[in-house]
């Protein structure tokens, strides 16, 4: 489970970085930035749902505030 969360987090960061590169290169003339940010939102929602399902099925346990 930890590996899936780490991979999803890496994909989110990579997509955000690629959107920044596209924004600087294209200067708003193409929609590659919008696509990269849309993928980031999709990865973020997928990660959130993955964490909710893992908690529901007992694959992860909440630790609370220490």
Q: Compute the gyration radius: what is it?
A: 15 Å
What's the rounded overall pLDDT mean? 88
Q: Tell me the β content.
A: under 5%
Helix percent band:
over 70%
Broad shape: elongated
Question: Could you say which structural class the secondary elements and strand pairing correspond to?
Answer: mainly alpha
Return residue spans where pLDDT drops below 50 for at least 5 consecutive residues: none
| Number of distinct beta strands | 0
Straight-line distance between termini: 22 Å
Largest sheet: none
Total count of helical runs of at least 4 residues: 2
H/E element sequence:
HH
Transmembrane segments: 43-60
Keywords: Membrane, Transmembrane, Transmembrane helix
InterPro entries: DUF2909
Protein name: Twin transmembrane helix small protein
What's a concise summary of this model?
With 66 residues, the chain is mainly alpha-helical.
């Amino acid at each position: 489970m930890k590996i899936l969360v780490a991979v999803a987090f890496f994909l989110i960061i990579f997509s955000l970085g690629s959107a920044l590169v596209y924004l600087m290169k294209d200067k708003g003339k193409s929609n590659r930035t919008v696509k990269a940010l849309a993928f980031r939102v999709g990865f973020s929602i997928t990660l959130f749902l993955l964490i909710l399902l893992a908690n529901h099925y007992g694959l992860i346990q909440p630790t609370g505030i220490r």
